[in-house]
Amino acid sequence: xxxxxxxxxxxxxxxLTRPPSPAADVGxxxxxxxxxxxxxxxxxxxxxxxxxxxxxxxxxxxVMMLQLLExxxxxxxxxxxxxxxxxxxxxTFCSGSDLNAVKGLGTSQDGVELCMFMQNTLTRFMRLPLIxxxxxxxxxxxxxxxxxxxxxxxxMTPSSEIRFVHKEMGIIPSWGGTARLTEIIGSRQxxxxxxxxxxxxxxxxxxxxxxxxxxxxxxxxxxxQEAQRWLQQFISGPPEVIRALKTVVSSGKELALExxxxxxxxxxxxxxxxxANLQAIAKQxxxxx
Length: 289
Ligand SMILES: CCC(=O)SCCNC(=O)CCNC(=O)[C@H](O)C(C)(C)COP(=O)(O)OP(=O)(O)OC[C@H]1O[C@@H](n2cnc3c(N)ncnc32)[C@H](O)[C@@H]1OP(=O)(O)O
Fold this sequence. Notes:
By secondary structure, this protein is an alpha/beta fold. The chain has 2 domains: about 60-235, 2-enoyl-CoA Hydratase, Chain A, domain 1, CATH 3.90.226.10; about 235-289. Helix content is about 45%, strand content about 10%. The strands form 2 sheets. Strands 1-2-4-7 form a 4-stranded parallel beta sheet, with helices on both faces. A 3-stranded mixed beta sheet has the order 3-5-6. It binds propionyl Coenzyme A (1VU). Propionyl Coenzyme A binds next to helix 2 and strand 3. Pfam families: ECH_1.
């Protein structure tokens, strides 16, 4: 992996390395039924507050973060998956850190530890061999805005808003959000968005390239269905091919050229002459329609 001047402490974020054996990361060959939902388990409960901890916000926030990590580990083990949608509850994507909890986490060391934990979790999330979509219903603020940048795509509803409010809180986005936003919209736009703590409505978000599309409905269920249809166009096909594509795009983004090329060779070797490839050749598909 290419060294950067300002890398986080090595223990905080796992380094992307090429798959140890070609088949290891892209071995899923079981077909995902087209009826199977590509959704993150968030639809089945997601990262919810642990109500047993309601009396102690700091613990409650910690529990939610651990739950997020658990979900990521679950997804790392979901070998037949192709895509996922991250969404919030009650028409709100995520309003960031629990402001009550952070009152009890006032030292610089607390902030850095939180940051390292979230950098690690979100980097693992970003590297999943799944195509991920943030469905932004309502507000995505602070850490919630950062979470959207860990997804491959962002869909907004007409009434949604993304806002990196960190400056107003006297901090910077440090859950990997600054680095990822810069990669998504470039450094000039990122500087404007962060230093202005700009309210990004869907039209502005689409214009500057943080949003990929504005959905038609702001209704929670309808927008979710729209998002599912949107994602479907990118995940139709055999899981091993979709997962391989995501893997090589991730390595193209993160690795030095020689390593990225080597990854492409390794991943290709798991597909060339495989079932999907042989079937496509046998069908003599034409792409002229
Ligand atoms: C990584 C670092 C970070 O994440 S820094 C960013 C931290 N987040 C924030 O500063 C957001 C603060 N919240 C707000 O600005 C507003 O509550 C937003 C999200 C815009 C929602 O406004 P509105 O729709 O009018 O609802 P509201 O303010 O009445 O809130 C409903 C209840 O939810 C609560 N809430 C909201 N956000 C948080 C939060 N981050 N931490 C803790 N509690 C939060 C509100 O306090 C309110 O609670 P209650 O109903 O008054 O008990």
